[in-house]
Specification:
It is a single chain. The protein is α/β, with parallel strands linked by helices. The chain is built from 14 helices and 14 strands. The protein is globular. The chain binds 1-O-phosphono-alpha-D-ribofuranose and manganese (II) ion (2 copies). The site of one manganese (II) ion (MN) has 5 residues, from loops.
């Protein structure tokens, strides 16, 4: 009975990326800086207080991994005497520090081409593109058209959007064209249709994603984004672990935004859920439903979307602790022959300047009944993760990545 469960904690980086300086991210360390701030009493909110408390992640080896990745002293201090899981870190080779690059590389397809990006200028979008969108979509104009944080721009422009009916266009350091609009007043289906139009118009510009960002509320003080976000991604450039699993006769159950991130390629079943708690429950159910040869692939997005980009250290710490409390339920689902691997797609250090992702190494922590509790070192590419899962599922080797499964079994 071989099943693989792959969990991406979106943006939970552990610092130490060898190429961080070229992204302006030298020293960025999502987990490390949260540990430091929490230890200093600077990560307090209504849900949590004091030093970071993640005993279950610690027992799987998260802090061993964090120390390995960056030499962070605060992480080293949280290492337990005994570890039950396998642990390591991985360096990204993809050119970008965005979500698709991270996930595709994990799944064996590093992104070695450059995405198109919109310049940090106002307007960020070329006039010719805007006019093409207006003509195709039958709208009279747009608001925004600049780099922005998604929550700030709806506070700034949401009321004007309600008055004028014009959608809000914005981007970020990622290869994205994002559209915010009121879910009921502009209409969700209309927003999705607009995103589909824009998707076709930015294909030639090599833009990774067009993202629908619906929100509700009546004024700047009450606007709130909803769980109906939808990402329109380009297709991965080569077959991923997902395609290979399906080709080998397995099912891929995609939890949270995984389906969108892979443009639904190689996805047998999509199970969306909004918020880490619901994503966690959906993951447990997916594991119950998975059979021999199947891959359950889940993304826990709150770390990134609600806390990393918002530079909310206390919120991020509380989310890590909530995941830690959930973790025993997850490991409790594992049967003989299962392999659980928890990792991340990039960093988003909540203590860093700006609101963008940070280039970091990512943790590899995992567990499987009968697998060795040992270190697997610093892997040179995230693709080693997918290759290890492929090896576990018995679906053959790929060009990118090297399996470390042999280090966890007595095959070594
Ligand atoms: O600020 P919000 O709207 O959350 O957007 C963030 O989320 C996008 C997609 O993950 C990133 O590119 C960043 O812009
Ligand atoms: Mn991400
Ligand atoms: Mn993000």
């Amino acid at each position: 009975m071989a099943r693989a469960i792959l969990v991406v904690l979106d943006s939970v980086g552990i610092g130490g990326a060898a190429d961080a300086a070229s992204f302006g991210d030298e020293g960025a360390n999502t987990v490390g800086h949260i540990i430091d701030r929490a230890a200093a009493g600077e990560a307090e909110n209504d849900d949590r207080s004091g030093p970071l408390d993640c005993p279950n992640l610690a027992r799987l080896g998260l802090f061993h991994a964090a120390e390995l990745a960056s030499g962070h002293a605060g992480a080293a201090a949280l290492k337990p005497a005994r570890v039950d899981g396998f642990w390591g870190a991985a360096q990204e080779v993809s050119h970008g520090k965005d979500t698709p690059s991270g996930h595709w590389e994990i799944a064996g397809v590093p992104v070695l081409f450059d995405w198109g990006y919109f310049p940090h200028e106002v307007p960020a979008f070329p006039q010719s593109l805007l006019e093409a969108i207006y003509a195709e979509a039958g709208i009279e104009g747009s608001l925004g058209n600049r780099h922005a944080s998604g929550t700030e721009i709806i506070a700034d422009l949401g009321e004007e959007h309600l008055r004028t009916g014009l959608p809000i266009f914005y981007t970020s350091a990622d290869s994205v064209f994002q559209i915010a609009a009121h879910e009921t007043r502009f209409g969700l289906d209309r927003l999705y249709a607009l995103c589909e139009t824009v998707r076709t118009l930015v294909d030639d510009m090599n833009i990774g994603r067009v993202i629908a960002r619906p929100f509700v509320g009546e004024n700047a003080a009450s606007f709130e984004r909803t769980g109906n976000r939808r990402d329109y991604s380009v297709l991965p450039p080569a077959p991923t672990l997902l395609d290979r699993t399906v080709a080998a006769g397995g099912r891929v159950i995609a939890v949270g935004k995984i389906g969108d991130i892979f443009a639904h390629q190689g996805v047998s079943e999509v199970r969306k859920a909004s918020g880490n708690a619901a994503i966690g429950e959906t993951t447990l159910k997916a594991i119950d439903d998975a059979g021999d040869g199947d891959l359950v692939f889940a993304n826990f997005v709150d770390f990134d979307m609600l806390y990393g980009h918002r530079r909310n250290v206390a919120g991020y710490a509380a989310a890590l602790e909530a995941f830690d409390r959930y973790l025993p339920e997850l490991t409790g689902k594992l049967r003989d022959g299962d392999l659980l691997l928890i990792t991340a797609d990039h960093g988003c250090d909540p203590t860093w300047s700006g609101t963008d992702h940070t280039r970091e190494r990512v943790p590899i922590v995992g567990f499987g009944p009968g697998l060795a509790a040992t270190g697997v070192g610093i892997r040179p590419t995230f693709a080693d993760i997918g290759e290890t899962l492929a090896d576990h599922l018995g679906i053959g080797a790929d060009d990118d990545g090297t399996s470390f499964l042999g280090e966890l079994t007595d095959r070594a």
